[in-house]
Design brief:
The complex is a heterodimer of chains A (228) and B (348).
Chain A lengths: L5 E4 L3 H12 L4 E4 L4 H11 L4 E2 L2 H7 L2 E4 L11 H4 L3 E4 L5 H4 L12 H8 L4 E5 L7 H7 L7 E6 L5 H10 L3 E4 L22 H9 L5 H10 L5
Chain B lengths: L7 E6 L14 H17 L4 E4 L12 H11 L4 E4 L2 E2 L5 H14 L4 E6 L6 H4 L7 H16 L4 E3 L7 E4 L12 E6 L3 H9 L4 E4 L9 H13 L7 E9 L3 H23 L6 H9 L4 E3 L1 H15 L3 E5 L7 H23 L3
Parallel strand pairs in B: 1-2, 1-12, 2-3, 3-5, 4-5, 5-8, 8-9, 9-10, 10-11, 10-12
Antiparallel strand pairs in B: 6-7
Classes of the chains: A alpha/beta (228), B alpha/beta (348).
The complex binds NADP nicotinamide-adenine-dinucleotide phosphate (NAP).
Chain lengths: 228, 348
Amino acid sequence: MAKPIIGILGAGKLGSTLARLGVQAGYDIIIANRHPVSQLNWIMATMAPGATVMTAEEVVMNADVIILAIPLSHYRNLDPEAFAGKIALDATNYWFEVDGTTNTISDLKKSSSEVIQEHLKDSLVAKAFNHMGYHDLEIEVDRHPHEKRAMAYATNHDSIRPTVEEIITNFGFAPFDLGALRFGLYLEPGSPLFGEAITTEEFKEKIDHIYDSSFGKKIIEARGGEIK
Amino acid sequence: MAEKEKYTFGIETFGDIGFNEDGTQLDAGQALRQLIKEAKLADELGIDVIGLGEHHRSEYAVSSPEIVLAAIAEVTKNIKLSTAVTVLSSDDPVRVFERFSTLHALSNGREQVMLGRGSFTESFPLFGFNMEDYDNLFEEKIAMWQELLKGEAMNWNGKLTQKLTDTTVYPQLPKGETIDTVVGVGGSPDSIVRAVYYGYPVILAIIGGEPSRFKPYVELYKKASDQFKKPLQPLGMHSHGIILEDGEEAKRVGWEYIKASMDRIGADRGWAPMSRDRFEFEVDKGSYYVGTPEEVAQKIAKNMKDLDMNRFDLVYGTGGQLLHQRNETIRLYGEKVVPRVKELLGGE
Ligand SMILES: NC(=O)c1ccc[n+]([C@@H]2O[C@H](COP(=O)([O-])OP(=O)(O)OC[C@H]3O[C@@H](n4cnc5c(N)ncnc54)[C@H](OP(=O)(O)O)[C@@H]3O)[C@@H](O)[C@H]2O)c1
């Protein structure tokens, strides 16, 4: 496929940063939040010149790949039919400051991206772009021009791996394939991998020791063993 | 000759509790009294503003900044008395008004309130607010704040705030006077747009990475004032710093204390500790103003110019630090850095 059109839902800290990176990487970026196009237009013209603002519906309709950069707790607003057949890169995290003090969406047995995949049942969901702070998407990348930072992803759909890897690469990162979507739990808040903007080697090292961490131990306790 | 550009230079602290020379930590009372001395020093040095954070955590002494500011008012002459920040979302705007109009009276109009989200969220459960309402709380309360500032009997019908009917809030401000209000902002484009919409100057928290990264935010600030047809307000930034005559010592202190503070905040959010390499980067090219007076002055001047800033606030005492290190930072900032930055920028 030619360069896919990338839609971004959410134009906040993460969404506007990814829009900027996407434009720089030469993608057609379309972006929306819940505001009218006229209100977001001039904001994006400054934050990510070159990105096109549309309504959220239009973004979903027109994009081949949709990055979710909205608060996780809003996932139920996403229309599964409109998403059918599309690739969805889920960058959302359960963040208590935004989504509420108790997580009623996901837990150590079911990662939040699995919840999203269940909801968007006819879409090809990958967890991606969730584990790096939005500022580090630029800071850590810019200051290590020769040592790419690992961006991990996880998906149940082998068919989309090449596309996901290509996007991650073009955005300036080294793709790191974690395998099936359930392994995406390793990338969630609380994990030692969360917040990391490190090299592939360093990332690998941390994954290898994930079950030594208190997060890893909690996974074992909750699931009665490691994620298989 | 064109009029010289006017700049504002401040210091800020979260209220980090400092350490004695023998390494023992001050108690909260000592830390608060220390703060008064530091503010007095800053005033004597001609520093324009002191901003105090509001925190409800063990490593900080200031949870009620206006009370501390009122005490500072009594021992200072010119310095502006600011918060950095007042967490409006988990406060009652009426109470905030009452406290600041009191401070306005006591300080003869030297008060300033910096509204914002702050770095932490512990005030939400503490005061019985739901964090998930954050955005709506802020939106509604900043609108209410603007009404309150009019100083007249007001009517208010809030969703998350109290209903007021023909209510005047006291002490009233003298006719024609107001509470100087600015908004502290992190990395959210929406927050900048909102501050401009309400017509308040913005202070950007630039606490990591190359400051030039904030250029889009500065552009957004300018564009927003065009968009909303509001006069362009001054723009400021705040960043952490340590200034000592011995630059290497400053770095050593930074690596010990700034790191400790960042790691502690990071641990709460599940982030990895700061690496040495990242620290060095922040000092060399990033957002830490750590070094000799000349090094720090050069860096401040460069970034203020780059980002078209009218105000710079140095966050001092991060992570606590020894009392003489805090003291020297303030002294050198006032004596050497600020005059040198003005010279480099050609303003006053
Ligand atoms: N900040 C980071 O460093 C970071 C890093 C990795 C992952 N994440 C995750 O990415 C997501 C976004 O985080 P953020 O920090 O960018 O938050 P943010 O700054 O609050 O931005 C959220 C954006 O989503 C929009 N939005 C909310 N509901 C929407 C909906 N139903 N449809 C379309 N747009 C909607 C918001 O705009 P309106 O409310 O105006 O519509 C806003 O533009 C979160 O799930 C977060 O956990 C964040």
